[in-house]
Amino acid sequence: MNGAESVVRTLVDSGVDVCFGNPGTSEMHFVSALDRVGGLRAVLGLFEGVVTGAADGYARMAGKPAATLLHLGPGLGNGLANLHNARKAGTPIVNIIGDHATTHQRFDAPLTSNVAAFAHTVSHWVASTRSARTAAADTARAVQAARMPPGQVASLILPADAAWSPAERSAPPLPRVGAVTVPDTAIGHALAALRSGESAALLLRGDVLRGDSLITAGRIAASTGARLLCDTFAPRIERGAGRPSIERMPYRAEQALAFLSGTRHLILVGAQAPVAFFAYPDQPSELTPTGCEPLVLSHPHEDGPAALWALADALRVSTAAARNAHRPPDLPLDGPLDTEAVMRVVGHLLPEYAIISDESISAGFAHYPLLETAAPHDYLQLTGGSIGDGMPVATGAAIACPDRKVVTLQGDGSAMYTLQALWTQARERLDVTTVIYANRSYRVLLEELAGVKAGDAGATARTMLDLHDPCLDWVKLAEGMGVEAVRVDTRQAFTSAFRTAMARRGPMLIEALV
Amino acid sequence: MNGAESVVRTLVDSGVDVCFGNPGTSEMHFVSALDRVGGLRAVLGLFEGVVTGAADGYARMAGKPAATLLHLGPGLGNGLANLHNARKAGTPIVNIIGDHATTHQRFDAPLTSNVAAFAHTVSHWVASTRSARTAAADTARAVQAARMPPGQVASLILPADAAWSPAERSAPPLPRVGAVTVPDTAIGHALAALRSGESAALLLRGDVLRGDSLITAGRIAASTGARLLCDTFAPRIERGAGRPSIERMPYRAEQALAFLSGTRHLILVGAQAPVAFFAYPDQPSELTPTGCEPLVLSHPHEDGPAALWALADALRVSTAAARNAHRPPDLPLDGPLDTEAVMRVVGHLLPEYAIISDESISAGFAHYPLLETAAPHDYLQLTGGSIGDGMPVATGAAIACPDRKVVTLQGDGSAMYTLQALWTQARERLDVTTVIYANRSYRVLLEELAGVKAGDAGATARTMLDLHDPCLDWVKLAEGMGVEAVRVDTRQAFTSAFRTAMARRGPMLIEALV
């Protein structure tokens, strides 16, 4: 057994069974070990942003980490943006990053870099294996670190000689560190707020937005009149029929302040107190209005579900949660396509237990409520603002949940960052339908230019925000990577295309001119 | 004048007149300033790897830095791989990286990260502006740092409030720090080696591979019998008719050792002593064979051209340099296309003073000599091993040299990393012909798998190195970004397509099935 084999064996024994990768020479022993060890499904991405984004999407749905396999500092560099998103989502990921052999590192060969420095930018945990004999133990620690609540980015640097040299054995899985119990005092404070008779809201993030916890939150809301809120960008929410309705924090600072206006107690369950996405001249960064007091029920690493349960118990909640009816939005009348019509069609035709990966950016803000009464589904969002996660996250989610339809709602500007994800969807025959909102601009930036009071956009400024010259042809781009595609510009044509996509399996792309 | 305007004004006054960018909200004041200040050409890339690679290609040809405009840590993250290549090339680049307003940074908003930590991975110089009043001075220092010999990556972090707040004035350009004079002792040692009667070679890198310096090196070689060598991957070489012939170090360690075998004195002119690209089990990292002594004539930051001149003077060289004749390779007979035939056609039809950006990886090693006697041209290579620089470097070179034909020789696996470069080529109407070597695999890795003795490739390992399922359609990918394209699989068809491309202006892509 060599070091690489001991690493793969340890990953598998620790419950990691998928590895998204884009390897190079220093990872060849790891690649070769995959066949000899078995149990680790290898999924190739043609760019590392696809690899890391897919690992994020996989873990959000599977509830456990995937591994990534990356090639030295620059290969990791290409994956940093989506690891940033994963870090902000609290997603567990185990990065295995190949490096030069330890004996080779001092020579400043072309690919030599400070791999650990790259890793520290986005990782909660970084280690560099120094010998084949410690590689397996380091791997077990990396998996343990990744699974620390709520989920961490763990990066293990594996020098080539630690992969190719002899190892004694693999390492057994390490105990899983559980979420910390929320202290009674925190529950007491939340209880007092909810019993005060003053207006209250629960801002939920993490696993309390799913399953029994979500229903418990709904029961508390129904019983106390408290509002249920989620962040503007949440990692994963169970939405649609049968689930309690969750209000989404608005993106714009002034809207967020108005949204919370009149709320006296803001109870944070796995969430931070809300802050503006960007700063703007003469606008506050903190979005809790005067008179609204944030109160931590549970920090992200604490056991939010148990705290919610204890809270409901203490409140003696007997009320059932208000659950959304199954009343999908009506199909739009025919006419030119727009973003609202797209969301209506998606909401109307969405099959049960679909997964939506939403990176529609500007298009998505207004139409979020339309999916409230659609069929039950999971809703995944861009958590770190680093664009280019929509299609990779969908790719990973489809690997995690092969029996569920995945729908990507994707802005065209962001889509260009990681369009290589479509190739992996084709190779793995993933059941993903991608809707490209082709507005042919960085639309959100046109709005932001006004928001930051940067003055009118001159001719040069406009060229930096406009994608019309030339127009991207998403049908050709998708077909170029083996994904069937169609372009539509009317509501009827979009309805027909989306209906077709929902009725079949496998990857498909719809370029929606909006 | 606000901080952003003072930065743009200072860049222009310091001689920076092109900015490759992909801005976000925090850069909107910079974008808006472009129209009010004038003099800085803004070129949009749809992914930051295109932006930074284009800045590298621009500066290699223009001999001065471009600016880049990048969006916080993740935006910079996407550009790190090609900044790594630029760092290894000794390319001057000025990165302007927007960050949250200073007042906003403590709130851990979704896009908050340690921007400086991202920057330090690839930069020689990093600074973070803390106020609009210092932004211009910091910018002048960044340009000065970038121009430090042989060229550095300088990263200036510009918080949004430093961009939007009032500034007093721009800053005047700072003095340019020149290359250090090589001490006489170093020239003396090289002189002794060349006069010893023992075999000697000059390993050249940097500006000594161009212009009068290259001719001087050729005269020294002709007079003393010394060999002229370059690294396996050199930033820029003037090649072809009228230039001295330069032997390229082989990629593989055992071949490199054989290549230098019998050479007693290896005189380094702006180059490092050769090292293996990767380590391999039981192979040395240092590639100077026993009995071959490396000797530094000039370090990269020293004045290599003057040292070469002094050396020629001391040697009383009267011999003319041996210059390549203009004797392009013959066109191949018709038949199935292969990599040698591609290079023959390129060499036969290449127009005078073309620029070749070569990221053909495995295809390029064997056929390098074929361009020796082609028309005079500049030859740019992947310097840091971080794949995905071929098309971006070509893009930047075409911006720097609008009157010269640019030809990209591009492996298909690498091309997928930064294919968005084609869109910028279309938007800017750049005169770039891209040849995709479509072998539909990471061919070099199939060879490396054997090289590192990782055992036979099993089924899983092969799927990680193979790009056949599905095959990429480069004609559709190019057309999807507005670039005309054609696919060929015979020598005659390639000849015809390449001839057409050389006879017209504007971007074109040829997918060569090899």
Automatic annotation (TrEMBL), chains A, B:
InterPro entries: THDP-binding, Thiamin_PyroP_enz_TPP-bd_dom, TPP_enz, TPP_enzyme_TPP-bd
CDD domains: TPP_BFDC, TPP_PYR_POX_like
Keywords: Thiamine pyrophosphate
Highest taxon of source: Bacteria
Domain Thiamine pyrophosphate enzyme N-terminal TPP-binding: 1-106
Pfam families the record matches: TPP_enzyme_C, TPP_enzyme_N
Gene3D superfamilies: 3.40.50.970
GO biological process, one term: small molecule metabolic process
GO molecular function: acetolactate synthase activity; flavin adenine dinucleotide binding; thiamine pyrophosphate binding
Span of domain Thiamine pyrophosphate enzyme TPP-binding: 373-511
Family per record: Belongs to the TPP enzyme family.
NCBIfam families: PRK07586.1
Protein name, per record: Acetolactate synthase large subunit
Species name: Methylobacterium planeticum
